[in-house]
Amino acid sequence: MAAGPPVVALNGARLRFGERPLFNNLSLTLSKGERACLVGRNGTGKSSLLKVIAGLQDLDGGERFLQPGTKVAYLPQDPDFSAGGTLADYVALGPAGGTAAPRHAVDAALRRLDLDGARQVTELSGGEGRRAALARCLVSDPEVLLLDEPTNHLDLPTIEWLEGELRRFRGALLVISHDRAFLNELTNTTLWLDRGRLQRLDRSFAAFDDWAETLRRQEAEAQHKLGRQIVREERWLQRGVTARRKRNQGRLTRLQDLRRERAEWLGQLGTAKLASASSGRSGTLVIEAEGLSKSFASEGGALAILKDFSTRIRRGDRLGIIGPNGIGKSTLVKILMGELAPDSGRLRLGANVEPLYFDQRRESLDPETTLWRSLVPDGGDTLLVRGRQRHVVSYLKDFLFEEGQARQPVKALSGGEKARLLLARLFARPSNLLVLDEPTNDLDMETLDLLQEVLDDYEGTLILVSHDRDFLDRLVTGVIAMEGGGHTLEVPGGYSDYRRHHRQITQTGRQEAKRARPKPANDSRPRSPRKLSYKDQRELDGLPEQIETLTAEVSDLEDRLADPELFGRDPEGFARVSDTLAQKRGALAAAEERWLELESAREALAE
Predict the structure, then answer these.
(1) What are phi and psi of 450, to 5 degrees?
(2) CA angle 261, 264, 267 (to 5 degrees)
(3) Contact at 8 Å (CB) between 146 and 174?
(4) Spacing of C-alpha 267 from chain mean position
């Protein structure tokens, strides 16, 4: 439910992209305290709608309303650093320009995101640029925060830090993201942009699949009664919501079985032997690593990537490799594939291993060639896929392309479609060991679901480097976590299993440290009771009544602003009420913070 009167709203909004309408007669409201996600198929206009709300895109029709004095911060998918300058100057200016943020706030934001304010913005990597743009949004202290794919190129520690920041954000939040775990954890409202219509669910994204399936079933029943069929372009939604959820039940059972096998295997590493391989398959043991160490020279001395690392990977295993950016995940992958020699230790690849490596930079696609020729560059109309001939058009349909697109040039494809074509080309190649380094970067949710389905059906061994927690939970049978200083931790199961295991280790370590801590000497001298000063205690006693009064005043002002005819009837009165409401909310927040500060001090003194 809405938390109060809207701080930003669209009414009867209409927008076209060339000759194609993106949405028509669309209405939307965002209120303080709402953490909403905007979902929908790639190309439906989600990013355009976010720009409209931010005031960066003009509507073709309809109205945009923003409460007077409301500050809006917008994070684009691809932040613009062309103006140059230092990182500190970039962050200080804020997303909408205006008065620069205080230097102490800028420095604090840069420290939290591990960024050097003296660096030039033109030198930043993709992940660093994303963190800088996030710092620029958060330091501006906005009332409305609009984020377009905020987790792209971020590592897991930064994503989890961002979740915490956004949970504490008191304004209105609207986010577009392909990261299911991020949306499940963060949101309390789901907005679905579908064929130009916006549908609202006042629940977290975790409820989206069930809700979407119900709406699709109701629509199909209604259209059937009218003697019509759902249009062909909805093929993915039918397949991606209803059918996928049914298949996932069986796949989940199979994944749990594989995880149990992996746990048993890790328990008896010393008994493994290299087995002979059957035709077209790798041996039972795919990779054996014993005592691997690797370090690189750095300004502060040797930088350890691995220390005494050992593992054994069997045919059919699905391993996820996780860790912060720059910790050495890609280095570990290259060592395991035999492309980079370790400083010490022993590595052995099993028999008949045919690896296929998909790196972070991806492959290039010739924009002038057709989809057809991209798959069969030497001509013909069939290609060999996992041992059998497939017609080009039939194979493209597996990756959600229509028959008419086969002869189109690559340059006509959207970003998500290009990613699907790259995946189609990748999986057409023979392999029994598939190594994917950050495959989910820049993919929309539709393509992510497709990639998961293809990997579910892959019969070989999979090594996956990813920061996508939901993706890891759905696919892998074990996790290798790189924790810094050359240390690693291998846990059977998915990312959630690793987090539980890590928390148990941390808790056990704290308990042992507490037991080992020396006890203070016994001091039997009587202590005078400590308490708040008379002035602070008086202030603390009076704050509950003050908070109650301010809460009632805020509620009354919100009720007055909720009148949809107030603005048209009395614009000046509407502005006065809005200004007063902002003042009262600020006073209420300050009173609550002060009460918390004094109460915490009182409790600490009483201990």
Answers:
(1) -65, -45
(2) 150
(3) yes
(4) 33
From CA 6, how far away is CA 401, in angstroms rounded? Answer: 40
At 191, is the pLDDT very low, low, confident or very high (cuts 50, 70, 90)?
very high
Rounded to the nearest integer, the mean pLDDT of the chain is 81
**Which is nearest to 82 in space by CA: 119, 121, 132?**
121
**Which amino acid appears at position 302 of this protein?**
A
Largest CA distance in the chain: 94
Chain centroid offset of residue 384 CA: 35
Q: What's the mean pLDDT in 492-518?
A: 73
With bands split at pLDDT 50, 70 and 90, how would you rate the model's confidence at 348?
very high
Q: Which of 188, 6, 170 has its CA nearest to residue 592?
A: 170
DSSP 285-331: EEEEEEEEEEEEEETTEEEEEEEEEEEEEETT-EEEEE--TTSSHHH
Q: Which of 353, 351, 346 is nearest to 274 (CA)?
A: 351
The pLDDT-based confidence of 182 (bands split at 50, 70, 90) is very high
What confidence tens digit (pLDDT) does each residue in 534-588 have?
788 888 888 888 887 887 787 777 667 666 566 667 767 776 777 787 778 778 7
Q: Residue 524: is its pLDDT beyond 80?
A: no
pLDDT category of residue 64 using cuts at 50, 70 and 90: very high
- Residue identified by tokens 């290299």 is 274
Instruction: Identify the pLDDT of residue 265.
Output: 59
pLDDT of residue 365: 81
57 Cβ contact partners less than 8 Å away, ≥ 6 residues apart? 15, 48, 51
| Six token digits for residue 258 | 């594989």
3-class SS at 7?
strand
Any residues with CB less than 8 A from the CB of 60 and at least 6 apart, and which? 14, 15, 16
Owner of token pair 């392309």: 401
Task: Return d(Cα 377, Cα 361) in angstroms, integer.
Answer: 22
Query: Quick one: pLDDT band at residue 354, thresholds 50, 70, 90?
Result: confident
Contacts of 591 (CB under 8 A, 6+ apart): 543, 546, 547, 550
The answer to whether 382 and 389 are in contact (CB under 8 A) is yes
Sign for the CA dihedral angle at 554, 555, 560, 561 comes to positive
Asked if residue 525 has pLDDT above 50, the reply is: no
Question: How far is residue 77 from each of residues 10, 153, 176, measured CA to CA in Å?
Answer: 22, 11, 10
Structure tokens given for 169: 């954000």
pLDDT interval class at 274 (50, 70, 90): very low
Amino acid present at 83: A
Q: pLDDT above 70 covers what percent of the chain? A: 80
Q: How much of the chain is in helix, strand and coil states, percent to nearest 5?
A: 45, 25, 35
The SS3 assignment for 589 reads: helix
Q: At what angle do helices 445-457 and 415-427 cross, to 10 degrees?
A: 10
pLDDT the model gives residue 604 = 65
Q: Which segments within 129-236 are labelled E, that is strand?
A: 144-148, 172-176, 189-194, 197-201
Q: How many angstroms separate the Cα of 34 from the Cα of each of 56, 143, 398? A: 22, 11, 38
What is the C-alpha to C-alpha distance for residues 405 and 407, in angstroms, rounded to an integer? 6
What domains can be seen in the chain, in order of their start residue? 6-202 (3.40.50.300), 534-606 (1.10.287.380)
